[in-house]
Amino acid sequence: MNRRNFLGAALGAAGSALLGRRGGTENASRQIPGATPDSEIAAAHFPADFLWGTATAAYQVEGAWQEDGKGPSIWDTFTHTAGKVKGGTTGDVACNQYHLYAQDMALARRLNQKSYRFSISWPRIQPSGTGAPNMKGVDHYSRFVDAMLENGLRPFCTIYHWDLPQALEDRGGWPNRDLASWYADYAGILAKYLGDRITVWAPFNMPWSFTYMGYGVGAFPPCRANFNDFLKAAHTVALAQSEALRSIKAASSKATVGSAYGMCPAYPKTDSDVDRAAAARYHAMNNVFFLEAAMKGHYPKAFVGEPPYKLMGFRAGDEKILHAPLDWVGFHYYTRRIVSDASRVQNFGGGGFSGTEIEADPATGRDPYTRFRAAMPTEGPLTESGLEIWPRGIYDLVTQISREYNHPIIEITESGCGYLDSPYEKDNGRVPDARRIQFFREELAELARAIADGATVRSFHAWSLLDNFEWANGNTERYGLIYVDYRDQKRTIKDSGLWYGRVAAENRLDV
User: Fold this and answer.
1) pLDDT tens track for 486-502
2) What sections of 411-456 are H helices per DSSP?
3) Would you give the end-to-end CA distance of the chain in angstroms?
4) How many CB atoms sit inside 10 A of residue 472's CB?
5) Which helix (H) or strand (E) holds 492?
6) Which of 29, 149, 350, 436 is deepest in the core (most CB within 10 A)?
7) Integer Rg of the chain from CA
8) Judging by DSSP bridges, how do beta strands 154-160 and 256-257 pair with one another?
9) What would the pLDDT profile of 11-26 be if each residue is shown by its tens digit?
10) What is the pTM for the complete model shown?
């Protein structure tokens, strides 16, 4: 079936009573380790100007992979390679948002959303990664941004969400230092054409993840497994982050530039000094490596012994290039990590992909430089995507970043949970996903507590507005507030979406 031919279907069972249903948490209330008491959930509230939003990524929702002059990306190459994606699916069609964006932005408005975090596909703008812009791509995103504004949404642009033009990978990929300047040129093009309407820019989504998983262990495209390539890629990306900030601000006086880092709070396995030091190294490497580079012009203390700066390709004067303080700090929260020391281990090797990162093999450390083991515990329940639910983690992470970076403006750029709930025919096609509601109730209560304790949190973006193509897991996971039937692209708002819409309207959780 060629889903490109579908121009949209009914919006689902919500109808005129979209925000009218009040139930949704039946049989979901439970007290678990790390959970938040119901009394605190009931008391939680958010500032009047708090921005409720959702997040998506271009490759995961757009489809239209060869239309209007778009070039191939490394994710097109990866998904078109047999055996790489569960179920053999690709992002060729995904949610077809390239054609259905007006419908999706109208849905976001009906859910009282105020911010929409989206990404732009680099190969739509520059099919070969460099040179003059493809104006059909620019015009598409211009219309898309206009649709956001027409629906009362703040356009929050992630410039790069993992879909590198294949032509640039063919020229060495992110380990090639030249990519920093090519990327800055790309960012400048976006700011030139869209900067009159977009004021919030994040250069990269989860830079540690795509550099480590793509180049260090080969779990994601371009599927290299060379730790030295990871180190080089990480340094190039850090340079590109700061060069892009300057490029954006040179092109748009309205621009503010921040981040969309993936972060997990790190808890030491024991109270020993070595495990505490290992947890600090994890935090430095996985959470704030790129943030510290931008804010202070140097990398944090992530390594045991002499930092491998020579292997990274560090040059004299790079400190000045790296130093480009961000206007705000954005990060994702999904789950936590338990970290232990591996400084005495002689053999090192990464483990398997789990959720948002690579877990270390329990018998070894992750690598010969950071020398720690990181594991996702299972003290709390697991989502159907396999991640531990630990609501307290967002409080700990937000307050830690607030302390360490002098109370910056914080945007929660992603958070969510994967459950496979689907429309129930006996209830007029309703999607009862009570577990997702409970997940957000507990986590958001902890976020409200962090705000009450002094953190300056401006927004929260649920992952995701729509069920979408979940990278190497294909269509086997569903994170959306809106159910997508991939056969005909019909959108059905889930109970969690209805609930989240009421939260956004009332700035409290007991709705």
Assistant:
1) 999 999 999 999 999 99
2) 434-452
3) 41
4) 16
5) strand 490-493
6) 436
7) 22
8) unpaired
9) 333 333 334 444 444 3
10) 0.93
